[in-house]
Design goal:
Elements (H helix, E strand, L loop, with lengths): L2 E6 L4 H12 L2 E9 L6 H12 L4 E6 L2 H4 L28 H16 L3 E3 L15 H13 L2 H5 L5 E3 L7 H10 L24 H12 L10
Parallel strand pairs: 1-2, 1-4, 2-3, 4-5
Helix pairs in contact: 1-7, 7-8
Length: 225
């Protein structure tokens, strides 16, 4: 059976691992990426290159003016992206409602092409505490997807939001990706990557990534400044 899946795809470590996992499970993959006013725009170009290598059926890009809403250091020029700081507070790299917006586009495309599965690189262990990466949020979105769609109401379609990395730490994610043959040197995770894709090494995303490779005893292929 030809199973179709939408993959929320940024070209980062987590989303590339999700794409590889979905393909290993026999899904025909449709990649969905966003230009949302993020300062690290280089990730969009890297996503395009990686998705092409994986031979996705189709790769869509949407431009969303989340930088007009502002409120996040990833999109607001008035707020600097901070170095990693261990804290229980949600950091200013949180983009208001970003994942809800992204998943809504994924849901719309899934309904049109007849896909019931959406893959999403949410992680609940080595992450910054974002509210839209938590298990309760993912379960709630699945319920919303059934209630908010024509196929959910008329055909009783149940959409599945896959988060295969949800309960894995970065070490486990990297090891799984290596098993699947991922070249992590092509991926970009840094919130402050320059136009050549070089990572800062100090933001939260870089910190989790560096820690993961170190603890997995695998050479970190990232190009750091």
């Amino acid at each position: 059976m030809n199973k179709k899946a939408i993959i929320l795809f940024s070209g980062g470590l987590d989303s590339t691992t999700c794409l590889a996992i979905a393909q290993s499970q026999g899904y025909s993959c449709y990649a969905l990426s966003f230009r949302y006013g993020q300062k690290h725009q280089i990730e969009v170009e890297r996503a395009k290159s990686i998705a092409k290598q994986y031979g996705v059926i189709e790769h869509k890009f949407f431009s969303l003016p989340l930088d007009d809403i502002r409120g996040s250091s990833l999109t607001d020029v008035a707020i600097a992206v901070p170095d990693y700081l261990e804290t229980s507070e949600i950091p200013n790299t949180y983009v208001p409602a970003r994942n809800t917006i992204f998943l809504s586009f994924a849901l719309a495309w899934a309904e049109v092409i007849g896909a019931k599965d959406i893959f999403f690189g949410a992680n609940h262990l080595d992450y910054s505490g974002y509210p839209d990466c938590r298990p309760d949020y993912l379960h709630a979105f699945e319920k919303l997807a059934k209630l908010a769609t024509k196929v959910g109401i008329e055909d009783n379609t149940q959409f599945k939001l896959h988060a295969p990395l949800l309960y894995l730490n970065k070490v486990e994610i990297i090891r799984e990706g290596m098993r699947l043959g991922i070249d992590y040197g092509q991926t970009i995770s840094c919130y402050r990557a320059d136009d050549r894709g070089r990572a800062c090494g100090n933001c939260a995303s870089c910190t989790y990534r560096k820690k993961g490779f170190a603890e997995a005893s695998i050479m970190d292929p990232t190009d750091y400044l």
